[in-house]
Design goal:
21% of the residues are buried. The N and C termini lie far apart (33 Å). Helix content is 5%, strand content 43%. With 107 residues, the protein is mainly β.
Length: 107
């Protein structure tokens, strides 16, 4: 396993104000299991910093997708979402090798 961390804005950290819903930050720490979901071309991220409670109407992690995840100073991927077959402590991410290989991102 490879240790990771990042910061997202999940709905679990939201707070209602009279004029708006504000999404606060959540520091996300955990590990990437590099040999899991290899055929899908995804990263499997196990969260160790705490998992939100399930909620009706969607994932408590909604809003955290797009968060960059780092291992030390290396950007390893971008959070994608929570796979419906797993507990809330597991998220998926798009690896940087996939993002860097996207033709629309090359000069």
């Amino acid at each position: 396993a490879v240790p990771i961390e990042g910061v997202g804005f999940p709905v679990a950290q939201s707070m209602e104000r009279p004029d708006a819903i504000v999404y606060d930050t959540e520091q996300i720490t955990g590990d990437v299991q590099p040999l899991t979901t290899v055929k899908r071309g995804a990263l499997s991220v196990t969260i160790s910093s705490g998992t939100p409670r399930a909620r009706a109407g969607g994932s408590p992690w909604a809003g955290a997708s797009g968060a960059a995840i780092f291992s030390g100073s290396l950007l390893v991927g971008v959070l994608g979402g929570d796979p419906f077959r797993w507990e809330l402590a597991r998220l998926t991410a798009v690896p940087m090798t996939t993002i860097a290989g996207t033709p629309t991102l090359t000069p």
